[in-house]
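Backbone-to-sequence.
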């Protein structure tokens, strides 16, 4: 049996852009990706604290040090610039692995800096 377990999260980042005319995904500053152990193309859940929306998409890297958190494509309809979001990744693990796993959580400042 495999379980979906919380792997990592970026807690309370601010949306800096919403680009409706992009194919899809969320663009995340590479510094934040690295700190949260997120990979290009990885599936994530985005929880919008301002309006309660929850969506799933995949990660694309944004310019390192830029603080960018940009919802692209249809996801752009689910948030406005300035909204506070939590970006969560999950991993499949055996129950034994899950007992040993320690999730990563990062808490960027109001400018999405570590």
């Amino acid at each position: 049996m495999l379980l979906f377990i919380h792997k990592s999260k970026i807690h309370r980042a601010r949306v800096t852009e919403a680009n409706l005319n992009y194919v899809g995904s969320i663009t995340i500053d590479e510094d934040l990706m690295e700190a949260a152990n997120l990979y290009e193309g990885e599936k994530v859940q985005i929880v919008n604290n301002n309006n309660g929306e929850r969506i799933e998409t995949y990660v694309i890297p944004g310019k390192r040090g830029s603080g960018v958190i940009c919802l692209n494509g249809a996801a752009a309809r689910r948030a406005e610039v300035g909204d506070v979001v939590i970006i969560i990744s999950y991993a499949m693990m055996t129950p034994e692995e899950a007992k040993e796993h320690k999730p990563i959580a990062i808490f960027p400042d109001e400018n999405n800096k570590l």
